User: Which sequence fits this backbone?
């Protein structure tokens, strides 16, 4: 039981740290031109909707860079998982999950990091979701 509790504590500590920002294959480093929309032309979108897309894109890129969203506000009513520190943010016209969680794959603990952006139905009729989650090794305490 003692080893189980120590393992749980180690995983919680690992999950509470920001994701790695090195250029290794386990990091999430957005390009300097990070954008959710890439080559999508937004000139035909109304100015208010374009402002929502720009704010959502900036928040998404911030999470990719290991930072907190700039525009969206923390949803304090969001219930965090018992094995991670995933947070939910609410922006105008969208919500954003800042995923920082621990999952077990084949019995091995892995960290799950990244953003999940969901537009409200009035912005995207199907509530479009965009995500970029990465699995990373968790440090093993001996």
Assistant:
């Amino acid at each position: 039981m003692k080893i189980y509790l120590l393992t749980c504590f180690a995983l919680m500590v690992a999950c509470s740290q920001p994701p790695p920002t090195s250029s290794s294959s386990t990091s999430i480093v957005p390009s300097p031109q990070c954008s959710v929309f890439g080559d999508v032309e937004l000139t035909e979108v109304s100015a208010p909707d374009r402002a929502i897309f720009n704010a959502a894109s900036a928040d998404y890129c911030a999470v990719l860079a290991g930072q907190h969203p700039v525009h969206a506000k923390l949803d304090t009513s969001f219930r965090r998982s018992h094995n991670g520190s995933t947070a939910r943010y609410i922006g105008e016209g969208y919500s954003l999950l800042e995923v920082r969680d621990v999952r077990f794959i084949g019995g091995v603990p892995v960290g799950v990091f990244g953003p999940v952006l969901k537009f409200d139905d009035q912005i995207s009729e199907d509530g479009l979701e965009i995500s970029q989650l990465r699995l990373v090794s968790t440090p093993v305490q001996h």
